[in-house]
Amino acid sequence: MPNDGLVPAVRHRQGEAGPGSRRRFAADEEVYAEGDRAVHFYMVVSGAVRTYRLLSDGRRQIDGFHLPGDIFGLEAGEERRTGADAVTDTTVTAFRRSDRDALTGDAGALAREVVAAMLRALERAQDHMLLLGRKSAKERVASFLLGLSRRAGTGGAIALPMSRTDIADHLGLTIESVSRTLTQLEREGVIALPAHRRAVEVRDGAALRRLDG
Amino acid sequence: MPNDGLVPAVRHRQGEAGPGSRRRFAADEEVYAEGDRAVHFYMVVSGAVRTYRLLSDGRRQIDGFHLPGDIFGLEAGEERRTGADAVTDTTVTAFRRSDRDALTGDAGALAREVVAAMLRALERAQDHMLLLGRKSAKERVASFLLGLSRRAGTGGAIALPMSRTDIADHLGLTIESVSRTLTQLEREGVIALPAHRRAVEVRDGAALRRLDG
DNA sequence: CGGATGGTTGAGGCCGCTCAATATGCGTGG
DNA sequence: CCACGCATATTGAGCGGCCTCAACCATCCG
Question: Does the beta carbon of B210 lie under 8 angstroms from any beta carbon of chain A?
């Protein structure tokens, strides 16, 4: 979800004794698990969160990565249908689910933010279904990098807080395919891979966009 | 989206000079196109609607099929990000987008219905991302048939209003793979395929559920 | 009956997966 | 500062599931 100016209102509110409370998570710590009762929903303050679903044999599909400003953890029912972990050390603001329920009826800003967040989550889900259903490995990785660079807004250098395994489980690939695709893009001069492997530098954004379809 | 008792309130309302107006579409007629201005959102009264996105080279990904009771066509922005066509002859109720905007602020039932519809759409999107990212062709077809039978609620015999091409573009497969998988399931005694090919009879629901992961 | 449309079946190829080995980065302790 | 160990990433070889391309079949209509 891009930090596109819709969320700061909420972020601001929570700095002034609003309804949200801060919580902190270490890397790989669980925020909530599939099956938990959904008491809160969250906004990322710093760090990154992954939400995912599992098949009984362990196959994992990461629905999305949530970066600062993003709202996650909204549920239709009482129970968590996804799990959520911190990717790196992460701070979030927790809102009570009942706040949402109470506020959808009033004219408050939070209600509008939440509705907007839902609609944007739906749009991202649609984009991701197109990616998973109809794009090649190279196109998937290119889309992923473009999306990250758009959301991070840090220009050429993109931080990759998540592991190759996380990326693979997001893009519907294996870690080997992710790795191979990245090195291929590097050989083609589209990106550069720093030694520490947890970042990507975009060298040819136009080429990436061309791959995105 | 299952017709799970949340929508009839809206459907009822529109029978009594509510905000909705009826519109009728022939099979394969366009309800709206990608890029259109999003003036309305819709609820299916009868028939079926597909919403989809296209890549520039023509590859299509169908986000979902919308059956009677389902709400579709909600957008975060001004523009349509998906196209929508009638699958068969279809009747819908159209609501003005401004109604939603006006109503999200009041305590009205429509606002709650719309929020509930968004959350359910999000859940279905999550299920579908898991399917597209991590399931085999056989698992995809099994999930699809189970989902349809659950939503149609007609027990053993499931109507398939959509073509093999539509199913393929929904499941991220080709028509050949869909066809082969259906015949394979038939050979295994899990389903039966009537001669007219636009329905499926479930013979072994447990086997289908086992395949669903 | 004949043509059109949609669905099924077959043969072969390719992309991404599996299994396995190697490399690299990083933290820890000598 | 280097040696070592561990976790993570990369690279390679071979395989297989789904795709591609093509022929065949069924159903529906005129």
Answer: no
Question: Which positions ≥6 away from B138 have C-beta within 8 Å?
Answer: B181, B184, B185, B211
Sheet of B191-192, strands arranged across: B157-159, B199-202, B191-192
Given pLDDT bands bounded at 50, 70 and 90, which one contains residue A18? low
Residues in chain B, how many?
213
Mean of pLDDT over chain A: 88
Angle, helix A175-187 to helix A164-171, in steps of 10 degrees: 100
Q: Which of B81, B111, B170 sits opposite A123 (nearest CB)?
A: B81
Q: Render pLDDT for B152-192 as a digit per residue (tens, 0 to 9).
A: 877 788 999 999 999 999 999 999 999 999 999 999 999 99
Residue B212's pLDDT is: 87
d(CA B131, CA B173) in angstroms, rounded, equals 11
Coil/strand/helix, residue B59: coil
pLDDT, mean of residues A171-192:
98
| B78 CA: distance to closest CA in chain A (Å) | 12
Q: Which domains does chain A have, with CATH numbers?
A: 8-132 (2.60.120.10), 136-211 (1.10.10.10)
Strand order, beta sheet including A71-72? A21-25, A90-96, A40-46, A71-72
Question: What distance in Å separates the CA atoms of residue B127 and residue A82, rounded to the nearest whole number?
Answer: 10
Interface of B with A in 8-27 (CB under 8 A): none
Q: Which residue has the higher pLDDT, A110 or A144?
A: A144
- The sheet that has B60-66: what strands, in order across it? B30-32, B83-86, B49-54, B60-66
Is residue A8's pLDDT more than 50?
A: no
| Greatest extent of chain B over all pairs of C-alpha atoms, in Å | 55
